[in-house]
Amino acid sequence: MNYKKKKVITIGVVCELTGLSERQVRYYEERQLVFPERSKGGTRKYSFLDIERLMEIAEKMADGMQTFEIKRMDKQRNATLREKMLKGQINAQFGQRATKRP
Fold it and tell me: Among 16, 17, 15, which Cα is nearest to 26's?
């Protein structure tokens, strides 16, 4: 597993690293922009990728974007990625068939 994906960082450390308040980090979670895991005791656990994401969100917010705009951009980006992946799979499928034929 990639170390950047491991959710091991507490919200306090996230705040120290990002300069965001706990309230801001929780708000971004409420708006479904970040998705921390929870320990058995209910403690939020973040990854390094989450920290990068939080910094990206904070920069966009500082530039005047609203959370709904960020979420809409994410959905568009994910749809584009899904489309590219599907096209790649289709191309790979047809490419394999073309090479198997005499």
Answer: 15
